[in-house]
Design brief:
three-stranded antiparallel beta sheet; alpha+beta; 3 strands; 14% helix; Uracil-DNA glycosylase; 63 residues
Length: 63
């Protein structure tokens, strides 16, 4: 995965929305909740893009 490309957490199977108004976004792979996008937190903490990104399964049946 290119470092230039930002990771879209909305398309990741590990992303989830929490009920906590202070920490509304979460990552199941890294097991944390945050106010920012989880991929941005991973990048700012490690200097690397998220290595646990997995695209969500396509829920639409094929035509």
């Amino acid at each position: 995965m290119s470092v230039d490309r930002k990771i879209n957490c909305f398309q990741c199977r590990h992303y989830f929305v929490t009920w906590d108004p202070d920490f509304p976004r979460g990552c199941r792979a890294y097991e944390f909740k945050t106010h920012m996008m989880p991929s941005a937190v991973v990048y700012s903490s490690s200097g690397q893009p998220c290595l646990k990104f997995e695209p969500k399964a396509n829920r639409k049946p094929p035509k």
